Amino acid sequence: MKKIIAMALCLLLALGCVAFAEGAPEETGTLTIYYSHSTEWADPIIEQFQEATGIKCELVQGGTSDLFAKVKAEAQNPQADIIWGGVADTYVANAELFQAYTPKDVDALMPSAVGEGNIWHAFDIEPMVMVYNTEMISAENAPTKWEDMLDPVFGAGRWVKDELTIDYRNPQEVADLAEQFAHNEGLYVSTVHSVRVLPDSLSRISVASMNDLVSHVASTVADLAATYVSKDGTGRLAVLADPSLLTILRQPLWNAVASQLGEEETARLRSQPDWDDQIDIIDPAAIKGLEYDAVVLVEPGLVMENGASRSSAASDLYVAMTRPTQKLVIIRTQDDAKRVTL
């Protein structure tokens, strides 16, 4: 953990529900924040914090479950200082991942906004409530816990609370590959069962050389763009590769798309703002919280090799493989296959 001065931490506590990553303190003057809030809403607040304190913030945005999976994968080598977002139950269930911190203003917070042992502190409180008919049930007899609500319906001991393990988003073949990869790399992920079976949802392409790699990626992206990307702004496609490959791939990809869709449509796609790109060409670490119809994963072994650590790179790849709702294509050289099994 890259721990900074206490004043900066206290100021940040005013921003949201946070917990501090466990690890040996190291003062760097930089705060790494994993957050699941909307960038449009949260980033201006973080910018104000940086202006007020002079502390540089490095940001990683994604879905809460993705970020917690990343924190777990990095447990032996924490990369984040703070995680911001999600519900209290998630922090309670993962308390061992965080170190306690008591801000000087903690007494100003509601007791319910302070986690046991000062592991987390709440930014806001959005209650989950039980709704009942006041004409049929008096306030004295109103349910206050799940047992009160469900025992009369099903009987005590005849129902259970359990983790959701159904995946409605990823095709089964894609979900199975991602889960197997996570287990092979020692990542903690929930066991899920996809209920969507789509023919040809997973493709693997192996090529002999880097030149072959570029041409196959370009032609594949052009074909997928013709299938999934529409002129009305719907349809999303992502090309994921190590940053060292992105500059090599970018222009050949757009040339192939232009040959397939035409210059006018390609110009429209290339002019789209980053937040609304229909064709994303990005680093896997930047894909958290996003969703696409199709994903092309290029040289995954190189991503693993160049990552800050194998566990953090594996976490990024796992998240990347769970982003497509229709199709995942893995394109790699024969040498890359020696780096990681997929």
Write up this protein.
The protein is α/β, with parallel strands linked by helices and 342 residues long. It has eleven helices and 13 strands. The strands form three sheets. Strands 1, 2, 3, 4, 5 and 6 form a six-stranded mixed β-sheet that branches. Strand 2, helix 2 and strand 3 form a beta-alpha-beta unit. Helix 3 runs antiparallel to helix 11, helix 6 packs antiparallel against helix 11 and helix 7 (210-228) crosses helix 8 (243-261). Mean pLDDT is 83; it is low at 1-16.
Question: What layout of secondary structure does this protein have?
Answer:
Blueprint: H1 6-13, E1 18-21, E2 30-35, H2 39-53, E3 56-61, H3 64-73, E4 82-84, H4 88-93, E5 98-99, E6 120-121, H5 146-154, E7 166-171, H6 172-184, E8 193-196, E9 202-207, H7 210-228, E10 237-240, H8 243-261, H9 263-270, E11 279-282, E12 292-298, H10 300-306, H11 310-321, E13 324-333
Parallel strand pairs: 2-3, 2-4, 7-8, 9-13, 10-11, 10-12, 12-13
Antiparallel strand pairs: 1-4, 1-5, 1-6
Averaged pLDDT: 83
Order of helices and strands: HEEHEHEHEEHEHEEHEHHEEHHE
Largest sheet: 6 strands, mixed
- Strand tally: 13
Q: What proportion of the residues form beta strands (DSSP E)?
A: 15-25%
Low-confidence stretches: 1-16
From the alpha carbons, calculate the radius of gyration and give it in angstroms. Answer: 23 Å
Helix content: 25-40%
Shape: globular
Q: How many DSSP helices?
A: 11
Gap between N and C termini, in Å? 31 Å
- Find the structural class using helix and strand composition: alpha/beta
